[in-house]
Amino acid sequence: MSELSDSGLSAEDAKLVTLARGARGRVGAPEGAALRDETGRTYSASTVSLEGLAISAVGLAVAQAASSGSRGIEAVVIIRASDEFTEQDCAEITSLGGANVPVFIVSPAGDVLKRATT
Question: To pair with 91 at 20 to 30 A between CA atoms, which of 10, 45, 71, 85?
């Protein structure tokens, strides 16, 4: 069993927070996301908003995992200002991860705002 940090996250989930914050911060995006797949590999992404192309941070992280051959998701972290877990988030995660994937919504400052499950 993994040791829990002060935030109540395991070390593996705390790593996802760091990756998601980094992805968001590099480009100043409104959201960042990171996920860990069934083999322990991690993927991180930020929202993409270009003329003619818009991809959510969660959607891009899931796409990266899928294009790398992942077949499932163990956990997801979403960095955003609100604690909202949207239907779109859930649909994107379940498209690869299936049911019962733990999702942590985390503030840009790194505070866990909400825990959800797909």
Answer: 10
The CATH class of the 11-117 domain is alpha beta
More confident site: 8 or 87? 87
- Residue 68: count of CB within 10 angstroms of its CB: 11
Q: What are the sequence ranges of the domains in the chain? A: 11-117
What pLDDT, in 10s, does the model give residues 70-101? 999 999 999 999 999 999 999 999 999 888 99
- Rounded Cα distance between 113 and 98, Å, is 23
Collect all residues with Cβ–Cβ distance below 8 Å to 107 and sequence separation of at least 6: 79, 80, 81, 113
Mean pLDDT across the chain = 93
How far apart are alpha carbons 73 and 64 in whole angstroms?
Answer: 12
